[in-house]
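> forwarded from #structure-qc
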């Protein structure tokens, strides 16, 4: 209620107010009514002010309560989000740790495989080196033996040739000496003795030649095999002796 309304005099008369003989209110009654109306207006205003204050306080409290509820909800949402992020982070760390462990296991396995491969390679290289050294040593040993055998064979051949040469020289010397002695003996023999001696010599030479030929044919037959037949016949010692005798006499 406005203040101006409270100051405006009431047109009606309050119940129980005294009136004069003309029906108009008295001055005292008007003043009393005015005071009563102003007090009523003041009380109404105070009541309205109190109500407005209470409404404002109630609105403030309701707003504060809504804000509190909203803050609590927001805090709860933040806590839930923080927990979710923490759980996701924990899960991510667990997955990362699991991946790191798997990578480490693969690394260790590759390391072991590489070490085993290198060890096998070293063993293979050592074995090849050992085999190569052994083969080289065997080749050197074989060459040394071959060279020794060659030298021995050469020395044997040299000694054989030397012996053959010496034997030939001795045989030549013996033949020359025998021829010289034979010539000296023939000069001292008579004609008849000389003929008999030469005939006997031719016979012996023919026998020696026949024996040598037979031995040569036997060796040839042995080399050719038992299925080969001997084509040539036996040599007649008399014919050979005759041929030898003729050669000597000539």
């Amino acid at each position: 209620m406005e203040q101006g309304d409270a100051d405006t005099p009431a047109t009606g008369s309050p119940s129980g107010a005294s009136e004069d003989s003309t029906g108009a209110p008295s001055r005292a009654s008007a003043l009393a009514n005015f005071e009563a109306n102003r007090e009523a207006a003041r009380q109404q205003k105070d009541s309205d002010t109190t109500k407005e204050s209470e409404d404002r306080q109630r609105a403030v409290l309701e707003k504060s309560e809504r804000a509190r509820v909203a803050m609590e909800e927001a805090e709860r949402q933040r806590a839930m989000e923080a927990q979710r992020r923490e759980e996701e982070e924990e899960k991510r760390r667990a997955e990362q740790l699991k991946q790191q462990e798997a990578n480490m296991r693969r690394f260790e396995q590759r390391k072991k495989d590489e070490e085993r491969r290198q060890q096998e390679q070293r063993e293979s290289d050592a074995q090849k080196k050992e085999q190569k050294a052994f083969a080289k040593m065997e080749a050197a040993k074989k060459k040394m033996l071959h060279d020794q055998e060659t030298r021995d064979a050469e020395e044997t051949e040299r000694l054989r040739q030397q012996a053959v040469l010496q034997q030939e020289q001795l045989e030549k010397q013996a033949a020359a000496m025998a021829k010289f002695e034979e010539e000296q003996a023939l000069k001292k023999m008579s004609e008849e003795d000389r003929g008999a001696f030469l005939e006997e010599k031719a016979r012996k030479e023919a026998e020696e030649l026949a024996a040598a030929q037979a031995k040569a044919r036997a060796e040839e037959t042995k080399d050719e095999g038992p299925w080969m037949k001997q084509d040539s016949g036996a040599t007649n010692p008399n014919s050979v002796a005759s041929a030898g005798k003729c050669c000597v006499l000539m």
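QC bot note: The longest helix spans residues 27-188. The helical segments are 3-7, 27-188, 191-224, 237-249.
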